[in-house]
Automatic annotation (TrEMBL):
Cofactor(s) this protein cannot do without: pyridoxal 5'-phosphate
InterPro entries, sorted: Aminotransferase_I/II_large (IPR004839), HisP_aminotrans (IPR005861), PyrdxlP-dep_Trfase (IPR015424), PyrdxlP-dep_Trfase_major (IPR015421), PyrdxlP-dep_Trfase_small (IPR015422)
Oligomer and partners: Homodimer.
Pathway: Amino-acid biosynthesis; L-histidine biosynthesis; L-histidine from 5-phospho-alpha-D-ribose 1-diphosphate: step 7/9
The protein, known as: Histidinol-phosphate aminotransferase
Keyword entries, A-Z: Amino-acid biosynthesis, Aminotransferase, Histidine biosynthesis, Pyridoxal phosphate, Transferase
EC numbers: 2.6.1.9
Catalytic activity entry: L-histidinol phosphate + 2-oxoglutarate = 3-(imidazol-4-yl)-2-oxopropyl phosphate + L-glutamate
Annotated source species: Neisseria iguanae
Similarity-based family: Belongs to the class-II pyridoxal-phosphate-dependent aminotransferase family. Histidinol-phosphate aminotransferase subfamily.
Amino acid sequence: MSALDFIRDDVKAMSAYYVADLPKDFIKLDSMESPYHPFTCSSELLNQWTALLAQTNIHLYPNPAASGLQEALREAFEIPQAAAVALGNGSDELIQFITLLLAKPGATMLAVEPSFVMYKQNAALFGMNYVGVPLNDDFTLDLPAVLAAMETYNPALTFIAYPNNPTGVRFTREEIEALIRASKGIVVVDEAYGTFSDDSFLPQVGSTDNLVVMRTVSKIGFAGIRIGYAAGSAAVMNELAKILPPYNMNQLSLATVKFALQHFEVIHDNILKLKAERERIFAELSTISRLKAFPSEANFITVCVPDAAELFETLKRNKILIKKLHGSHPLLDQCIRLTIGLPEQNDAILNIIRKLYA
Ligand SMILES: *Cc1c(COP(=O)(O)O)cnc(C)c1O
């Protein structure tokens, strides 16, 4: 027997999450990164930040609980006092540990499809049953189907991305409220795109044990520092705290986000610019009758085109990388996903799309 024979067969059968490794001159609009470095807009801000990093005690273990970041997040995003906040090394890590927390033998996870692929993957990894309820053709929620699945499977854990990825569509508040009311288990409202959206469940966290709202700073200019957070009732968050690795956050990232929250107007400006660009691109795409662009409340737009592979390859030849969704779910037939970039990057994509399809 070799050492490899001891590794789980289900893991060996998986393929690794694909991360594109691109030449420097490529425009990368495939994974919802912000095109703006948050601190390079002013040399003063950049200097303050680098000075702060230089003072950081990287020789000491971090103490996330005493870092002050939870309080800063609470203030910046109006998280109610009744809620407790957990920090994760990216919200991906929180998805992992929330799943682990609820993975009793025989327990079920529910999600809609298509949605964020990590939910299902974590269910498999931690031995949960998984139920995926298809969305409607227009990527809205099939509420009766979700409620029926809840009734049948009594899920311990439900993940809802609000707005949803990879579709950009935000379900309605009333639908999510109905799910929370119907669910005996925990409903995680994943607001990775919450700052680009018109609605949030953060003001409600702490009011009931079965609601957790998860957010990340990745999509608003900090994908490189890996910080996500989850807010929920103190009782549930205390249990989660027991299984999170004690030093999961790093000093440099903690210091960076605290600094960012003190200068939130810069980040907010960038969010407003991206939202304005999103609306501009959506309007442009909507004038081309051979395309179907879906209304988005995130920093990306999902579009179904006559030939997704052709568009993907044409953009790639022009050194632009987007996400080809076609093939990942039947509802995403001939769909692609465009991350909103700088105006000139968006124009480069629009020009190619117009040449092909207008
Ligand atoms: C990007 C994304 C995440 C992961 O964010 P990180 O904090 O970077 O790990 C989680 N959920 C959804 C829906 C996302 O799109």
